[in-house]
Design brief:
Blueprint (H helix, E strand, L loop, with lengths): L1 H15 L2 E2 L1 E11 L3 E2 L2 E2 L1 E4 L9 E11 L5 E2 H8 L5 E4 H4 L6 H26 L5 E9 L14 E5 L2 E2 L3 H11 L4 E7 L2 E7 L2 E2 L5 E2 L2 E8 L3 E4 L10 H12 L9 E4 L2 E2 L5 E2 L4 H10 L4 E5 L3 H4 L8 E5 L2 H12 L14
Parallel strand pairs: 6-18, 18-21, 21-22
Antiparallel strand pairs: 1-7, 2-6, 2-8, 3-4, 5-17, 9-10, 9-16, 10-11, 10-12, 12-13, 14-15, 19-20
Helix pairs in contact: 4-6
């Protein structure tokens, strides 16, 4: 009986350590975009006058266990299910099948770099500071309408005679054409090439060229963001606010402790992110009393807000800036938009 009991115990322990196809998200540390990280300013600007800022504009992070980062055990997953500060998801919801650790790290690093560039662009747009902006073809989607006509590295100049200053210009022109051929002029090897391209319906009633694009920016001054071991695109909003506070007189936060999350586009649109429940927990643990959340994440916010944290929903940088300025000036923030069940 003793031998059988020991064997059963051993089997139970072995079963508990077996890997399962799940990912665990838990609250990570926060970083003040107005402060320092490892002795260096998180945001440093050269080529333009800067101003000291008090208070906190914290970006929030999430620890991710499982998937390409290493296996999660049955016991680990079960324990996380019982912990309200954590979330458990099937691996395929977070990582495409077959993603390696190196690929995940590279994707996260690229997303962070793009997020930082977009943050600078959105901050300058918000402050009405001119800068150069172009769209470059990064690749083509499968069965692209532009196959053989647009090549990776091409800079898109005009569409139907309209200067391409943003992705919105292309989208609006294709929508107006309702599937009609569009004349696209690209710069290739220093020469302009004109192509007639018939867009394809993406299956959702929207016409697309099937070109993956990236922005090329020329900024009037240099912005360096120093933050090691943090990746992904979700810090964009807080980087934008930190840049605005750094290059404008006064103190945006009024010394308040504010945190938030959200992707950012060059035009200032705030997009959804993952792990918002864990980010709110991390923000509150870090001392924040006000949290900026993407409007698109409201469904995950309701019912999960930690005590002592006011969550304000924002759809763009202007709304986020207004919320911070209102709080920083000591005014009542209770009337600002909040996530509701309606």
């Amino acid at each position: 009986m003793m031998v059988a009991g020991m064997a059963a115990l051993g089997l139970g322990i072995a079963a508990g350590t077996l890997p399962v196809p799940y990912v665990i998200e838990s609250p990570g540390p926060t970083f003040n975009t107005l402060g320092q990280n490892q002795g260096s300013p998180v945001i440093s600007v050269t080529g333009r006058e800067t101003y000291p800022a008090a208070g906190n504009l914290d970006l929030t992070t999430v620890y991710v266990d499982g998937g390409p980062n290493g296996p999660v055990s049955i016991l680990g997953a079960f324990s996380a299910w019982l912990d309200r500060s954590k979330a458990v998801y099937p691996v395929e919801m977070i990582y495409p099948t077959g993603t390696t650790k190196e690929e995940a790290q590279e994707q996260s690093s690229v997303a962070m770099t793009t997020s930082q560039e977009n943050a600078v662009a959105s901050a300058l747009n918000e402050l009405d500071i001119p800068f150069g902006q172009q769209l470059q073809a990064a690749g083509l989607s499968n069965d692209s309408a532009a196959a053989g006509k647009i090549e990776p590295g091409d800079i898109l100049k005009t569409i139907n005679g309209k200067e391409i200053t943003s992705l919105a210009v292309i989208q609006e022109e294709l929508a107006a054409g309702k599937g009609a051929p569009a004349t696209v002029v690209v710069e290739r090897g220093g020469q302009e090439v004109s192509q007639a391209i018939t867009p394809k319906d993406n299956g959702e009633g929207r016409f697309i060229l099937g070109v993956m694009l990236k922005y090329l920016f020329t900024f009037p001054f240099d912005v360096k963001i120093s933050l090691d071991k943090v990746g992904g695109p979700s810090a964009g909003l807080m980087f934008s606010l930190g840049i605005i506070d750094t290059v404008t007189p006064g103190d945006l936060t009024g010394g308040k402790h504010i945190a938030g999350t959200g992707t950012i586009t060059p035009d200032g649109t705030v997009g959804p992110i993952g792990g918002i429940g864990q980010k709110m927990q991390g923000a509150r643990s870090g001392g924040a009393t006000l949290f900026l959340a993407p409007a698109a994440n409201c469904g995950e916010v309701v019912g999960h807000v930690p005590d002592g944290l006011q969550v304000i929903k924002v759809g763009n940088l202007a709304e986020a800036r207004h919320a911070v300025e209102l709080a920083g000036s000591g005014q009542d923030t209770s009337g600002l938009p909040a996530c509701t069940t309606n």
